[in-house]
Amino acid sequence: MRPLQPPEPARSAEWRRRFGEEARAERPDLSALCLLVGAQADGELTEAGMEAAQIELDRLAGELPFRPGGPRSWATALSEHLGGGLGFRGTPGDYQRLESSLLDKVLRRRRGLPILLSVVWMEVARRAGAPVYGVALPGHFVVGFGPPEQQVLVDPFVGGRVLTGTDAELLVAGATGSPLDPSMLTPADPLDVVLRILNNIRAWSAARPERSDVALWAVDLALLLPSHPARLRYERAQLLVQRGDFLTGATELDAYAEIVAAVDEPAAARVRGQAHAARAMLN
Question: Of 45, 188, 191, 210, which sits most exposed with the smallest number of CB within 10 A?
Answer without folding.
Answer: 210
